[in-house]
Amino acid sequence: MAGNFESKKKLDIKWASMGLHWKNPTGDDFEPWLERVKSVGYDGVTCFAFEGLECFLDKPELLSRSLNNSGMDLAAVDIPLDTPQDDYKRVMDLMNEANCKQLACIVHGAKNKTPELYKYYADMLNRTGEYASKRGICVHLHNNSDSIGRNFTDWKNLIPLIDWNLVYFMADTGHVTKDFDEEPYSERAIKHLKDNWDRVHYLEFKDYNTATDLNTPLGEGFCDFERIFALMKERGYTGWITIEQNGVSLERSADECALISRNFVRKGLGI
User: Fold this and answer.
1) 178 in Cβ contact with 189 (< 8 Å)
2) Whole-prediction pTM value?
3) Closest Cα to residue 80, out of 131, 21, 147?
């Protein structure tokens, strides 16, 4: 599937903050959380389907009401790839109600990788993409630690097996920087993006260093965002980017960390 670009050098980006960074607020805490995220400069949020959005799955109109009240959007939803079909339907009903298009599928605990395992998960991803496309939803494979898609070798094996007419490409820069150990830290994210830029549809900006792991505000880790920003300015990008931090670090609040990351991309991209 072609990348998420409207014109060659256009940067028309909306910014979301990931619920994980804020310990996945839900229920009565959800709408106040939206206000907090908005106050530090974000346009929307990304959430886990079953850790954050679970209270809305059977009452999607309540989610729409909270989003409308705060003037925020639901940018994306993260979900286990092996979710049962009935639960996929509930999640996609919720996404349709909220006008959310990005579904990030995660595989946990994929080890002892073989050609058969790559094909198994690629087929599952293609089937999910086919089902989602009928609902106007874009399915992505989220690269993650200890999963399918965790390094360059995985992607070399997966790319020929994935139907890019049904599945869209995303990259989590933090996990690339941590996990794609075939290259030095600073080369990992920029190489992955350059290799696949024409497929890139959705990005998740996260940073990593050995001291604070993935609990690292953007610009404080090993990911070479300077070159990523230069690539984006050269090639163009439009749509959502989620800024994610797995948790707070160095005794700072979630609000403070989210603001540090938002200011970092404002300065780096000029938007």
Assistant:
1) no
2) 0.96
3) 147
